[in-house]
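Please check this today:
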Amino acid sequence: MEVKHLRTFVAAASENSFTRAAESLNITQAAVSQHVAALEQELTTTLFDRTGRAVSLTEAGRRLNDYARRIIALVEEAQAAVAGIETHIEGRIRIATSTIPAEHLLPRMLAEFREQFPDVRETVHITDSRLATKAVMDADADIGLVGEEPKALRVVVVPVATDELILVVRPEHEFAKKRYITPQSLLKQKLIMREPGSGSRQCVEESLREQDISFDQLNVVMEMNSNDAIRAAVREDVGVAFLSSLSAASDLGSGVLQRVDVRGIRPTRQLFLIHRPDSLYCPATRAFVEFVIGRCKSNCTS
């Protein structure tokens, strides 16, 4: 099993394309096909499902992907150790993230990370917390940023930020003139909620249950998977909504939305970085995890 074949395989798995893998490795598409075919012949199994121009890993391919990444990382470490030089970090990191980290944490994180590691590239997939966690567990992503702590034992969980969820309304809404409302007041309101699977929705539902209010009692008129769309719907008087304070900050600052405190309810959650233990065999992934942990420690002490 040749290392160059494994490098080609990992590139094709990351790009979901032989063409893009060839471009990233600066070789021909025919060479990519030959390298993958050599691996498939040696392992006597199919590693990719080929449908048109796109390719996707088979179950055997998914299993090989983790091992291939580890082998490549160990080879690079060994080469650097023998040469007595510091390892040059490059490669690609696959990040699966829920919307709040994607919109309000990740851009600054990546900008600062790029200053230290300019040759690392990132592929970012935005989804909800549960699907982001599943992507990490299934090795479809190297790193996850989520708003709900995974229960799975197969992932490492690192808290990276705190997010408060607040009730927002239009300035003309009846709640806007009140210092606070009771939780029971929500039962008469048209509510806009995030979709099932969202970490912010889970946090709100848990806070309401603590006040003996179940989801079924609420008048949920709309479910949306976009914080921007929810803010727009509240501005248009479709209903009221619980939103991340990070997401609502600009509208609150401009006065187009107003925060309303709910007595006894203050939904607050942690945002987490998650990864599989074996993902740290990849130097780029390990560098990113160490960077984020160091960044969090620095922010906590500043």
Q: What stands out?
A: DSSP finds eleven helices and twelve strands in the chain. The chain has two domains: 1-87, 90-302. Residues 179 and 205 are 23 Å apart (CA to CA).
